[in-house]
Each structure stands twice: as C-alpha cells, then as structure tokens.
Amino acid sequence: MKFVFDLDGTICFQGKPLSKVIIDALDELACHGHEIIFASARPIRDLLPVLPPHMQAYPMVGGNGAFVAKDNHIISTVHFEEDVKNHILSMIQLHNLKYLIDSEWDYAFTGNEDHPIRRNVDPEKRAKQIPLASMDIIMKMVLLEIPDPGLIMSQLTALPVVVHVHGNEGILDISPPGIDKWSGLMKLGVEDQSYVAFGNDANDITMFQHAHTSVMIGCHKELGSYASEQVSADEALIAQRLLSFCRLHECLTT
C-alpha cells in the first residue's frame, strides 16, 4: 500500500523536522513494504530540511502539485503562463503586497523576517534569494500580510489560478490552474483508491477524494467532509495509528 503524507500540521509541527516518534513509525511502515510519499505546500527545496537524510529520496509532491520529485531529482514542474503571471505581479505592485514567490529553485521574499512562514524558507541555504524582476519562471506565489483579503481574493478568482486560503497564517497561496496534490500524485504513477492519505488542511482535499483511506489530523471543517477518520494532532497518537497499519498488514499476511 502507498501512504501519502502532508507535512506541516500533519506529521511535523511548528516548522520543526519530523520527530523521532514519527520517523520510527514511518520506518516501520517502510519495513513492512509500504511506499511512503510526501505531499506538501512547500516547494521541494523547503520540504527536504524537515526530513531525515534517508527519506530525502522518497517520492514527493511539492508546491501543492507544482513540483514532483523522485530519487533526489525534480521530474516535473508547472509554472504560471506569462499573461497570468504578469497580471498577478501588477496586482502585487498596485496594492504594495508582501510576498514569497518561488521559481524552479530560487525565491523572492519581501515579508517581515519574523513572519511565521519565513523560518520555513530555505533554512539550509540551498537556494538564492533573488529580485523578483530577475525571475522569468514562477511556480508558486504566496501573498502575505494582506490589508484587504476580500478585495485581493475577488481579483484572483477572476484569473485561471488555484488559490488556497490559510486563515490562521493570514496568507493566500496561489498556484497555476490544474495544480493540486492529486495531479502531482498522478505524475508519480499513483492510481485512484490505491493509497492512504494523511492531511490537515483544505489543500489536502483532492488527495483525500482519491484515497482508499483518508486520515484527517486535528480538525478542519472543509476537509472533514472527505475524511474516513480523524486523529488528534498529537505525535504519539499519529505514530500509534501508523503502527496499527503495520499490525493490520501482519494479520493479512499470516
């Protein structure tokens, strides 16, 4: 069986790397022959630092589907079309918005250095922070500290883009059209109803819709409609649920 895991708020918390109890449970899954896939809103660059070295070659979906990686190589990327990109950049300039914008590897950032999202951006200095004007290809945009979210959201909904609202963080996460976690999983050859999904937010809905079993961590009203079950956001309880899949596998094979 394949197991697909969102990261932040699902199996890692407060931007910190996976804890030992989670790593041990994931390793146990792998030892029982299960395939582990990570699917995050983070670009691949920022996904790697929270994983132990032996998991950094696992299949990954980053940027909510804009990036797909396997065996330490990015195998697929999707970027904004030129006219859409320019339209959003004009909005940013007009409203003087703060942002985190990702190219295929490097990034541009104008938010406050103490913004919660900043600590997750390239902590291992794998990339370069570059001027937005020098960024030809854009894969993902995150708008920060928005003074009038309703106005900006109304303008974005008129464009061919996917927008995820992260209310607790006060950000709008924008991707090219057709990009979501399920689209990224399909590029890895994952088939419908062939995997167990763990997630905690609205950007996990598509991978829940196509999962055999979907496990919601914590409580999210919108995601809950698609969840098979719910586990509290407690690392020990999450690890216990993962290990129960191993025990089920043992029962089925004996």
UniProtKB/TrEMBL annotation:
Name the UniProt record assigns to this protein: HAD-IIB family hydrolase
UniProt-listed Pfam families: Hydrolase_3
InterPro entries per UniProt: HAD-like_sf, HAD-SF_hydro_IIB, HAD_sf
Domain of life: Bacteria
Any one Gene Ontology molecular-function term assigned to this protein's record: hydrolase activity
Species this chain originates from: Paenibacillus dokdonensis
Upper taxonomic lineage: Bacteria, Bacillati, Bacillota, Bacilli, Bacillales
Keyword Nuclease: no
Keyword terms of this UniProt record: Hydrolase
